[in-house]
């Protein structure tokens, strides 16, 4: 999921440089959503991963 976030960030930067404002804003918002989902899943895996290890 982090790979998709990076792809959308790069897409937003390229679109922003080329002047496609709507595409850049859309890609940036998707990247932001995916990043926060990744962070939440990472924190949950840290919390629950330590709980179930012997």
Identify the overall geometry.
rod-shaped
Write down the oligomeric state: single chain
Give the helix level as a range of percent: over 70%
Structural class: mainly alpha
Approximate strand percentage: under 5%
Summed over residues and divided by their number, the pLDDT gives a mean of: 80
The main pleated sheet reads as:
none
**Separate helix tally:** 2
Our measurement of the CA-to-CA distance between the termini, rounded to an integer number of angstroms, reads 28 Å
Uncertain regions spanning at least 5 consecutive residues: none
DSSP strand tally: 0
Spell out the helices and strands N to C: HH
The radius of gyration over CA amounts to 15 Å
Organism: Aquimarina celericrescens
Transmembrane segments: 29-49
Protein name: DUF1328 domain-containing protein
Keywords: Cell membrane, Membrane, Transmembrane, Transmembrane helix
Question: Please, could you describe this protein's structure?
Answer:
91% of the residues lie in helices and 0% in strands. It is built from two helices and no strands. The chain has helices spanning 2-18, 21-52. The chain is rod-shaped, with a radius of gyration of 15 Å. The mean pLDDT is 80.
């Amino acid at each position: 999921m982090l790979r998709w976030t990076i792809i959308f960030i790069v897409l937003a930067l390229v679109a922003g440089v080329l002047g496609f404002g709507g595409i850049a804003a859309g890609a940036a918002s998707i990247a932001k959503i995916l990043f926060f989902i990744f962070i939440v899943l990472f924190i949950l895996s840290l919390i629950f991963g330590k709980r179930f290890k012997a």
